[in-house]
Design a protein that fits this description.
globular, 67% helix, mainly alpha, single chain
């Protein structure tokens, strides 16, 4: 995605993959990375807010602040799989598009 992608473009492109990966990563890595369970919950809050009817642009500031805090600004732990890494990269891209 280009740095100039809109939030809706990024959402349409990345949310389907994130919806598949996030629960799997939580299940596989949740024991060693319990913070990912909170990331999982926050991601689904973002989905709920963005799918709400009559919502032009959801207020997701609080959710992205929490995601950045919990993930240490999407820093990828050394002991995780490519899917975990992909989730953090996609969440960072969604976050960046939201703030643009």
């Amino acid at each position: 995605m280009s740095k100039h992608s809109t939030f809706n473009e990024v959402k349409e492109t990345l949310f389907p993959t994130l919806e598949q990966y996030v629960p799997i990563v939580a299940r596989v890595h949740g024991k060693n990375h319990p913070e990912f369970h909170e990331i999982h919950q926050i991601f689904y809050t973002i989905i709920e807010k963005t799918n709400a009817p009559d919502t032009e642009k959801s207020d997701l500031n609080e959710e992205f602040i929490k995601l950045r805090e919990i993930s240490n600004n999407y820093a990828i732990p050394d002991d995780v799989c490519e899917s975990y890494e992909a989730v953090y990269k996609m969440l960072a891209e969604v976050d960046e598009a939201y703030r643009a």
